[in-house]
Amino acid sequence: MDLIERHQWRARDPKGVVYLQAPPRGVKIHYMGARVDPGIVDDHNRCVEVVKSVQRQHMDVNLWGDIGYTGCACPHRKVFVGRGPGHLPAANGAGLNAKHYAILALLGDEGLVVPPPGLLHGLVDAIEWLRGEGAGREVKGHRDGYATDCPGDQLYAWVRQGARRPDDGGGAVAVPPWHRVLSYPPLMEGDDVRTWQARMRARGWRITVDGVFGPQSREICRQFQIEKRDLHVNPSMVGRVDRPTWEAAWTSPIT
Ligand SMILES: [Zn+2]
Ligand SMILES: [Zn+2]
């Protein structure tokens, strides 16, 4: 994932910081709700300017302590750190901010209105990033909270359809090479175990990424296989990461 830290986009310092008391249930998706020049697709520097202008608007006009979003995704599959994980966002509406992180898509209600594939990948990257930081598995649109156009009909339909990467199964995500069946007992250790655990964590599972395949990894593997019924797991492979189970961790839609 291509994360742009605050100093990299030269964010202003926040005027106030409010920490979340508990991990949110998930993420809400937003859009700009204004015209976005389709020319940003050809020039990432202009994405940076848009994000800076959003922060300016939120701090100088809305008089918020910082940009209202947890993060922002752009068409170049980059994710700008906004308030960041652990911080209360401001964009979801009063009373709704502690429940979900807020992710802005650089997409408009005029101009750039069709989400480019890089933007959808960036949004999924942002969702996975925040899940890795403790967010729950819900993905919703701003309008699920109250009546608003946000995040626009196109993005909202995408959210409702499962917020999937474009070209599902089309190799959009590189699957790391599978070397061997991961199983327990006995304990198995290795970089491939760590790779699989990190991937499962990014998918939202509460798994320790320690490179050791033990009872917890076996149980999460088993639950994942149950969730992905169409894997048709061989009974002897339940709780064991065989090649199809490994590949599904990268290619299967996150549900
Ligand atoms: Zn919104
Ligand atoms: Zn960009």
Structure description:
The chain is α/β, with parallel strands linked by helices and 255 residues long. It has two domains: 2-160, Peptidoglycan recognition protein-like (Lysozyme-like); 188-251, no CATH class. 30% of the residues lie in helices and 13% in strands. The protein is built from six helices and ten strands. The chain has a six-stranded mixed β-sheet with strand order 1-5-4-6-2-8, with helices on both faces. The longest helix is centred in the N-terminal third of the chain and has 18 residues, at 44-61. The protein is elongated. The model has no long low-confidence stretch (mean pLDDT 93). One zinc ion binds at residues 44, 47, 74-76, 78.
Bound molecules: zinc ion
Helix content: 25-40%
The CATH topology label of the largest domain is Lysozyme-like
CATH superfamily of the largest domain: Peptidoglycan recognition protein-like
Q: Please give the order of strands in the largest beta sheet.
A: 1-5-4-6-2-8
Indicate the overall shape: elongated
The level-1 CATH class of the largest domain = Alpha Beta
How much is the average pLDDT?
A: 93
SSE diagram, text form:
Elements: E1 2-4, E2 26-30, E3 35-36, H1 44-61, E4 71-74, E5 78-81, E6 100-105, E7 110-111, H2 117-132, E8 138-141, H3 153-160, E9 188-189, H4 191-202, E10 212-213, H5 215-227, H6 243-251
Parallel strand pairs: 1-5, 2-6, 2-8, 3-7, 4-6
Antiparallel strand pairs: 4-5, 9-10
One zinc ion binds at residues 44, 47, 74-76, 78.
